[in-house]
C-alpha cells in the first residue's frame, strides 16, 4: 500500500523520485523508539520493492546514519561497501550525523 501510494504521488506531481528518512531501524534511536530485529529485514525488503516499483527513470534515495555500524544495523545489502548498496537499492545516500 505504501509503495503504491508513493508511486502515485511521485507520478501525479511529476517528481523525480522519493527520499526515505527512516533513521532508526533496529537500533531504536538509542532507546527512544521501539524497534524490532525484523526492522532491518523489513527495511531492506521495502527498499528492494520500492526500487523495483519506481523503475530506473525515478530516483530512490535514503538517509543513513554517519556511524560506521549503520549499514550493518539498518539494512542488509549483501555488498562489500556502501557504493554497492547505492547501486543495488538506492540512487544515493544522505549521510546524517
Mean pLDDT: 73
Sequence stretches where pLDDT stays below 50 over 5 or more residues: none
* The CATH class: Alpha Beta
Oligomer: single chain
Q: Give the number of domains.
A: 1
State the CATH topology.
TIM Barrel
Number of alpha- plus pi-helical segments: 5
How much helix, percentage-wise, in residues? 40-55%
Bulk shape: elongated
Question: How would you write the strand order of the largest sheet?
Answer: 1-2-3
> From the coordinates shown, what is the CATH architecture?
Alpha-Beta Barrel
Taken as a percent bin, the fraction of beta residues is 15-25%
Question: What structural class results from the helix and strand content?
Answer: alpha/beta
CATH superfamily: Glycosidases
What is the radius of gyration?
A: 13 Å
Element string (H = helix, E = strand): HEHHEHHE
Report how far the terminal alpha carbons are from each other. 31 Å
Enzyme class: hydrolase
Protein name: chitinase
Domain GH18: 1-97
EC number: 3.2.1.14
Summarize the structure.
Belongs to the glycosyl hydrolase 18 family. This protein is of the alpha/beta class and 97 residues long.
Report on this model:
The protein has 97 residues and is of the alpha/beta class. It has one domain: Glycosidases (TIM Barrel, Alpha-Beta Barrel). It has helices spanning 2-12, 28-31, 38-54, 70-74, 82-88, and strands at residues 17-20, 59-65, 92-96. Strands 1-2-3 form a three-stranded parallel sheet. The mean pLDDT is 73. Residues 1-97 form the GH18 domain.
Amino acid at each position: 500500500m505504501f509503495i503504491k501510494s508513493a508511486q502515485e504521488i511521485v507520478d501525479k506531481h511529476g517528481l523525480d523520485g522519493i527520499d526515505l528518512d527512516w533513521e532508526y531501524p533496529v537500533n531504536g534511536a538509542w532507546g527512544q523508539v521501539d524497534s524490532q530485529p525484523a526492522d532491518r529485514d523489513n527495511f531492506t525488503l521495502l527498499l528492494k520493492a520500492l526500487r523495483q516499483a519506481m523503475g530506473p527513470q525515478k530516483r530512490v534515495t535514503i538517509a543513513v546514519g554517519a556511524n560506521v555500524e549503520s549499514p550493518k544495523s539498518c539494512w542488509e545489502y549483501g555488498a562489500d561497501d556502501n557504493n554497492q548498496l547505492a547501486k543495488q537499492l538506492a540512487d544515493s545516500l544522505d549521510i546524517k550525523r
